Amino acid sequence: MDQSFGENAKAWPKTSRNKVRRYPARGSYDQPDVYKILDAALLCHVAYCIDGQPYCTPTAFWRNDDRLFWHGSSASRMLRTLDHSTPACVTVSHFDGIVLARSAFHHSINYRSVMAFGNAELVATDEGKLEAARMFVNRYFPGRWDAIKRPSAQEMKATTFITMRIAEASAKTRTGPPIDDEGDYVLPIWAGVVPVQMVVGTALDCPRQHQQARRGADLSLYRDGRPLGEVLTEASEAVSRAKP
Amino acid sequence: MDQSFGENAKAWPKTSRNKVRRYPARGSYDQPDVYKILDAALLCHVAYCIDGQPYCTPTAFWRNDDRLFWHGSSASRMLRTLDHSTPACVTVSHFDGIVLARSAFHHSINYRSVMAFGNAELVATDEGKLEAARMFVNRYFPGRWDAIKRPSAQEMKATTFITMRIAEASAKTRTGPPIDDEGDYVLPIWAGVVPVQMVVGTALDCPRQHQQARRGADLSLYRDGRPLGEVLTEASEAVSRAKP
After folding, report:
1. Whole domain around residue A178: which residue ranges?
2. Which of residues 155 through 194 in chain B touch A, CB cutoff 8 A?
3. What one-character DSSP code corresponds to residue B12?
């Protein structure tokens, strides 16, 4: 069933699940394209089915090689359902702009998105869970794990980590200006792109901040005004470099 | 089956589908709370199931009263599947910040999200489709429909509009600083929030812009540096005011 390749794979196979049908030229099945989009994001949307009813849950996620991880309380519906390996679809999307064309039909969106398919399963062992918790913190804030209070045994018990090996994935991207029908460029209608971007703001101190607490190196990438995607990509690269 | 209230409803019933289980105090079933989150967004993620396999598709959407609308090519998998009324879950999420606590366990995300459930169905009539196309353009750019080239009969045939009456919905929100265990506030570990925000950039002219083309009033809300959520909320209010 699992049609993905091994660790040295360069692309996923094109299947009925991950095939980009609409505008196939915007699609890619190459691992580097997919990973780049995943690694620039913090939030994903996880879709799963219970008795034919779809659910779509937004949650923080991270990637380690060809595995995605996310987490939540042991009590949450999604994670109870995914308990014993369940098909899931993890979607990541970056919204980059609104494309205004001369004709209604050619209005569009600039975006980068990934749909990743696989079977979601629990991280079963205590060691696996602790490593997942460490990755979770360090992936966004490289080195922060060493600076904070570690989870207690009780907290770890209350936390579920889910992992999904990416069996199939595809990326889909639209960039650039509107593309109107050739005959419509003579129309004096304003056309172009309104770009949008997720941007980091000024960090806010906790109102109960300890007077000796200082922002550490783990936060150094999060400078006011930076695009979040850039920050997350750099944080992801820092984590990769630190790997043994 | 449809447990939603009529047009004057103030809240949706709490059911097994839309009940906020994890951190129930963060949940709301009130229409104004749900609509506010929906109307500040352009993108949603639609989850649907085909033979037990979940799919999660990002797409532009808009709201009219208690109905959501989205669209796509008549060829797309999602819309072929949703052809004859299919359960769907439409999720909208705004990512507002990363919450850094003193303990690993209390790290969190600030967000506003909605999960809306119902049966998705095709907009069946030509009149309904044209009205959906008009709403689609005007909802983001109030008045733009009157300035652009209308879709041809062939383009309308190639376009599918989907609508879903919200049968049940819930909103979930987290705001504010980290909340650590009382005993941990004495730790000299930096804690706070890194806010993030979707921001509008400088509009880019189409490289093939007609020399007499000017940005119209339809774009006036999209000023450089504005939070996108603010722009979309105001555009939505303008459309509501223009209703007969």
Report:
1. 24-242
2. 155, 159, 177-178, 184-194
3. P
Between A14 and B81, the higher pLDDT residue: A14
Residues of A in contact with B103 (CB under 8 A): 148-151, 155
Q: Are A171 and A117 in contact (CB under 8 A)?
A: no
- Domain CATH number, residue B165: 2.30.110.10
How far A241 CA sits from the closest chain B CA (Å)?
Answer: 23
pLDDT of residue A17: 87
CA distance B115 to chain A (A): 7
| pLDDT tens track for A201-237 | 999 999 999 999 999 999 999 999 999 999 999 999 9
At A73 the pLDDT is 66
- In a domain, residue B13? The reply is no
In total, how many domains does chain A have? Answer: 1
A54: nearest CB among B73, B89, B197:
B89
Confidence category of residue B91, pLDDT binned at 50, 70, 90: very high
Contact yes or no for B202 and A188 at CB 8 A: no
pLDDT digits (tens, 9 = 90+) for B137-170: 999 999 999 999 999 999 999 889 999 999 999 9
* pLDDT at site B10: 86
Give the pLDDT of residue B73. 66
Is B16 within a domain? no
Q: Is residue B7 part of a domain?
A: no
The torsion angles phi and psi of B119, rounded to 5 degrees, stand at -105, 125
* CB–CB contact A137 B104 (8 Å): yes
Å between B166 CA and nearest CA of chain A: 14
Chain A residue with the nearest C-alpha to that of B144: A104
pLDDT classification of B187: cutoffs 50, 70, 90: very high
This prediction's pTM: 0.93
Asked if B217 is an interface residue toward chain A (Cβ–Cβ < 8 A), one would say no
- Looking up tokens 């970056």 gives A94
| Alpha helices, H only, B152-227 | 153-157
The shortest C-alpha distance from B26 to chain A (Å) reads 14
